[in-house]
Amino acid sequence: MKAIAAFAALPADHPSALQDLVLADPVACGHDLLVEVHAVSVNPVDTKLRLGLPAEGQADPRVLGYDASGIVRAVGPDVTLFQPGDRVWYAGAINRAGSNSELHLVDERIAGRMPASLGFAEAAALPLTAITAWELLFDRLGLKQGGHAGETLLVVGAAGGVGSILIQLARQLTGITVIATASRPETQAWVRQLGAQHVVDHRQPLDKALLDAGLGEVDYAISLTHTDQHFTALVNALKPQGKLALIDDPEPIDVRLLKRKSISLHWELMFTRSLFGTPDLQAQHDLLNAVSAMVDAGRIRTTLAQHFGPINAANLRRAHAFIESGAANGKVVLEGFGA
Known about the structure:
The chain has about 350 residues and is α/β, with parallel strands linked by helices. It has ten helices and 16 strands.
């Protein structure tokens, strides 16, 4: 099968940063689905794992890619949720080979049924960010579906992939008021289109930006990027007994600042369930099916923003560089392996 892999921590524009290869076809066992990959999207985790490889290189190829949509071609003996021919979408697991390959193995319990109303490219934009956003809202912050009218949620860096679906889920499934941060006119327009009721510029201190907008303190905050730069302002912006969640890897933050207000801190990594094989592993299958139903009902839209062409090393290097630039809004998708 065709695959794209990395061997060393090289800059995204280096011709060897990601390489086209031919690898042996994998074989499904246990709860595995063998998926014929039709489209993938690129996330910051792809770039972080590439840059986390040994600088001197390694012998074994590292196939990246943690978002995919495709068709089930074979199943392992323990599979009960899918059968060959089913269209699926998923975000995979960081302790297994990634989805940048023609054929890919994924545990059925972290895959969902692809929305019937979307093409493969539109679908591939959503799984990883949808899982992350859902777990942030309902598993980490403990929001209740249908609740939270009169409460406020601040989303820092809301125009990216996670923020783009998180805004939609929060608006569709709760009564909370969403305050998004974005710094450019085009990203501010993007988050408003997705449902944010208020938008503030994160280039100024967030507590001041909220006050200037007449919004005051918030009940919940989710920081998706540059948490260390915003941390003190986030503490100031949260109400006493508020909740703060984050997904990035900030420079050291002084959590002692949270004590005076009894603010709780919650970290989200959507790979935790698959990495540790938690008893509730199938929760990701269930939530992906729920999001799929919302897409087909017209309640959620794809967050695809850029289509970078076929899945090959050159296009993936370009996508990695774009993600690393910090200029992306929504998701970057690649589709098909060509002849």
